[in-house]
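Hey, quick one: can you model this chain's 3D structure?
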Amino acid sequence: MRKLVVAVFFLGLILSGIPMQKAFAMNCTEDTPINKAGDWFATLGKQGTEKDQILAKRKADRLLICAKKQAHEAGKTVEKAGKDLKKQFGM
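Sure thing. Here's the predicted structure for all 91 residues.
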């Protein structure tokens, strides 16, 4: 009984902690609080266009990294699906 209670508690803790959309889908255009804090430190003391240029460059770099990561994961998925099809057809 004790193991069941611990398992139910653990499952509830895990499922309530992370929304499912955030766990499986990553939106590259959203800024996280960590990104916002880093941008704030990067632009501390900067004014006007210099500040805007730094923010735009940092956002573009984050988008590029995220897009590369998603493309890599999609490639892995396609490769795995190809191997599964080859197994099914006996090749």
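One thing worth noting: The chain has four helices and no strands.
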